What does this fold into?
Amino acid sequence: MKKIFYLSLLICILIPGELLAWGTTGHRVVADIAEQNIKSGTQKKIARLLDNLPMAYWANWPDFIKSDKTGQWDNTFIWHYVNAPRNQSKEDFIAYIQSVKQENIYSEIPKLERTIADNVSSPEQKRVALIFLIHLIGDAHQPMHVGCEEDLGGNRISVLWFSDKSNLHSVWDSKLIDFEKYSYTEYSHILNIIPKEKKKELQAGTLEDWLYESHTLANEVYAGVNNEDRLSFDYSYKYKTAMELQLQKAGLRLAAILDQVFK
It folds into this structure.
């Protein structure tokens, strides 16, 4: 199994950037922020599962395996998002995602947490669950992963990013983040400069709360763009703070979850 894991990382060079949620940089930023904020005991347990490699190394693996041709991971492709109608109240939004029958990011994150915390789970089961959890907590904070089914979370909304053809989903996956020109370690260390009390504030809430925050941001994003719009400097300026806050929240909340499941 470990050989499959490592070989699958090579697949990343074949995957178009727009298929990678938060892009490779964004997911690594989230994982690195989390790693900077977990307890030392948690870090030791994670290091044993991940062969002493940083969480950022594995953060994009659940996207890379979308190019796997064996079919063994096909059931996981729908775990990365949950669709919901626009502009719902919090009560209606939670009721809606609770009613979705298909597996999704809301249904699977708690299952992954239970697998990691369960003493009956094998090291390999814990390892796979951990890698997916690292990734899906990131996805839960990318607003287009809590978008609308009819446009596939913005994938069907065509835009120009400066002069390049793109779509709204891709802009939020990678264009906004990569526009800053930081490496993932540079960005994660910048975004981790937060007062201790503020970190605790950002970690608060439930998965339902966090997904509703993403839903609310998704509504704002949808309202601010039309099909075939040209997005450039002004769009980056407008959403830079919101994008960075989502990365901070994802990293800090992932750290809190990991401390809980590995206690």
Strands lie at 158-161, 164-167, 229-231. The chain is about 60% helix and 5% strand. The chain has one domain: 2-65+79-261. The CA atoms of residues 102 and 256 lie 27 Å apart.
